[in-house]
């Protein structure tokens, strides 16, 4: 995903860490398979990394990596900021997992503070949903084990299943990971069985951060992946409009007709954005708008958009529960 798009997703408050996290090793789950799983070798974009023993101090540099790590019973001692919210903050799907333990904030999106990371003395750095560069990987690898983003896939283009498996293998919890994935797959399957009508509907996810400029998310974006797994069909024309390596197509008002689908989900950061979109003359001409088949969902308050933007083993159940009644209300 383009850095500009990731930056646009950032919202208001700024994250911070605590010294408590620096002195406390990552907690592990009871009955873990980890001690007998090592050594493990994980392939990634920049080669492979062999982890000799169970990690005790884990730092996550992917924007949503902390969710899968938490789901597997490990509390990262460091994490990066995405939505300009503490990653241990108000997200309802992680609150209980963090408890009172708060990680140190070691960067914002793909800008990492190497000094802060080194000060945490991590024995493993995980960067899956990230745009980590080779030079960043090389620098971090001088003092710790690093598992970079998945091999053979564009940055920010791996599915949640692939990233979760990479994380699970790195932590020596492959068996637990498969159970987590099976549980989420079952949630999606149950939703598809409950709403077979969704299989015949095309759907697009879009946003707008300033007047006259619109974004439509391609099939590799977590938001689109989420709705496809609910059973909807995506519109391939959006992919053709995106720049190579991007998972978002930038649209002018004149190109909004590509969003004339059966269901259009706008994920926005303010009511002002909603008003601006609805007031666009060319948007008013779209049948999806005239038939009231468009849906405006906030990133936060409630955190529905954030949940399917993260699209992780922790956020997906919350996202399904919140979005289902909104989708079924559209006739």
Structure description:
This protein has 331 residues and is of the alpha/beta class. The chain is built from 16 helices and 13 strands. It has helices at residues 3-8, 19-23, 34-37, 65-71, 95-98, 114-119, 134-141, 160-170, 174-194, 222-229, 236-241, 271-278, 281-284, 287-290, 304-310, 315-328; strands spanning 40-44, 47-51, 58-60, 78-81, 104-108, 111-112, 124-126, 146-147, 203-210, 213-217, 248-252, 263-268, 294-298. The chain has a five-stranded mixed sheet with strand order 11-10-9-12-13, sandwiched between helices. A hairpin with a 2-residue loop joins β9 (203-210) and β10 (213-217).
Write the layout of secondary structure elements.
Blueprint: H1 3-8, H2 19-23, H3 34-37, E1 40-44, E2 47-51, E3 58-60, H4 65-71, E4 78-81, H5 95-98, E5 104-108, E6 111-112, H6 114-119, E7 124-126, H7 134-141, E8 146-147, H8 160-170, H9 174-194, E9 203-210, E10 213-217, H10 222-229, H11 236-241, E11 248-252, E12 263-268, H12 271-278, H13 281-284, H14 287-290, E13 294-298, H15 304-310, H16 315-328
Parallel strand pairs: 3-7, 4-5, 7-8, 9-12, 12-13
Antiparallel strand pairs: 1-2, 5-6, 9-10, 10-11
Helix pairs in contact: 8-9, 9-16, 15-16
């Amino acid at each position: 995903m383009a850095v500009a798009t990731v930056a646009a997703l950032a919202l208001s408050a700024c994250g911070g860490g605590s010294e408590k996290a620096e002195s406390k090793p990552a907690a592990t789950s009871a009955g873990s398979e980890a001690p007998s799983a090592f050594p493990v070798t994980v392939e990634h974009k920049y080669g492979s990394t062999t982890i000799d023993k169970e990690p005790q101090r884990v730092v996550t540099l992917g924007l949503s990596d902390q969710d899968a790590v938490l789901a597997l019973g490990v509390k990262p001692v460091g994490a990066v900021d995405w939505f300009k919210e503490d990653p241990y903050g108000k997200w309802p799907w992680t609150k209980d997992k963090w408890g009172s333990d708060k990680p140190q904030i070691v960067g914002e999106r793909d800008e990492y503070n190497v000094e802060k990371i080194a000060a945490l003395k991590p024995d493993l750095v995980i960067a899956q949903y990230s745009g980590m560069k080779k030079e960043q990987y090389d620098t971090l690898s001088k003092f710790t084990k690093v598992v970079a983003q998945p091999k053979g896939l564009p940055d920010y283009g791996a599915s949640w299943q692939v990233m979760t498996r990479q994380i699970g293998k790195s932590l020596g919890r492959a068996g637990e990971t498969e159970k987590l994935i099976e549980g989420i797959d079952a949630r999606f399957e149950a939703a598809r069985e409950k709403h077979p009508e969704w299989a015949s509907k095309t759907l697009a996810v879009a946003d707008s951060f300033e007047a006259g400029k619109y974004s439509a998310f391609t099939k590799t974006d977590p938001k689109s992946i989420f709705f496809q797994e609910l059973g909807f069909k995506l519109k391939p024309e959006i992919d053709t409009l995106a720049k190579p390596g991007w998972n978002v197509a930038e649209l002018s008002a004149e190109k909004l007709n590509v969003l004339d689908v059966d269901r259009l989900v706008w994920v926005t950061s303010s009511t002002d954005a909603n008003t601006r979109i609805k007031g666009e003359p060319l948007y008013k001409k779209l049948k999806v708008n005239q038939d009231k088949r468009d849906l405006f969902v906030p990133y936060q308050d409630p955190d529905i958009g954030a949940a399917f933007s993260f699209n992780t083993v922790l956020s997906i159940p919350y996202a399904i529960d919140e979005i289902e009644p909104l989708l079924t209300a559209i006739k």
